[in-house]
């Protein structure tokens, strides 16, 4: 038999070498980053052509109190020096702002300045929404716009209608094919394709949203709310397909609780996507065979077992020779 110290040493080496590999194979890989902040997919996206037809700035209207590219209605009030106020800080208001033309480019970026504020420090709402839909909607229950929309709605929700594990204010995106009703009572929970909890109300700087859509690649929303030029990725979703040539809109709603919901500016641009140069030059990663981790761990075990057998054989042979020499002496 092997000396006990040698057996203990070999067993320790065997476990330290093989256990991590077996553990990784059993778990199916790492879960690092799960539940963490959203990772941006925007990369080196470059704005190319500004789209005047889907951009709006102060003074917002011409001498006839109209805008060539946008319509507004409901409770909306235009302050030519400051903002487009979709709702005032009063109960039961609903206002909207919609582009007159559909958005022709298949890939684009929309950056918009907004402000949500009011008299109350405790109870306020309900919020506002950004829309990219097949048609222009009228006033309705979905944050001041019609329900059963066809396209994308992004909701800046400042009032929770039910209890949730996440905090409010909250931003979430819902894709709809025109057949689904927005679940007001659950604040859209279970319907969203991407979401985040960000306090966009009463920010020290003018808050901004930046929606980037590259057809066939990704949809991403980033928010500036704490410092200038400091963007937080709210969500980034791959494989989302918006309707071709959607209309761009904004709407807001107040119920028993209220807030001022202001759109300050909207800038829309065509974009081009450039993958990082370093990534583009690297060869694609080699795909490993299914179960490769398990077989690698098994091979390590067999290697140590073989070493154990060789050492045991050497010790046995050495003891046999020594016993033979001792027998000859007598």
TrEMBL record:
* Main subcellular location of this protein, as a coarse class: membrane
Protein localization = Membrane
Q: Does the keyword Disulfide bond apply?
A: no
The membrane-topology field of this record reads: Single-pass type I membrane protein
Annotated GO biological process: endoplasmic reticulum to Golgi vesicle-mediated transport
Q: Does the keyword Membrane apply?
A: yes
Signal sequence extent: 1-24
| Keywords per UniProt | Membrane, Signal, Transmembrane, Transmembrane helix
Q: Report the GO terms under cellular component.
A: COPII-coated ER to Golgi transport vesicle; endoplasmic reticulum membrane; endoplasmic reticulum-Golgi intermediate compartment; Golgi membrane
Q: Where is the L-type lectin-like domain?
A: 48-271
Which residue windows are transmembrane per the record?
Answer: 294-318
What the entry lists under InterPro entries is as follows:
ConA-like_dom_sf, Intracellular_Lectin-GPT, Lectin_leg
GO terms (molecular function) for this protein are: D-mannose binding
Q: Which PANTHER family match?
A: RE50040P, VESICULAR MANNOSE-BINDING LECTIN
**Which protein is depicted?**
L-type lectin-like domain-containing protein
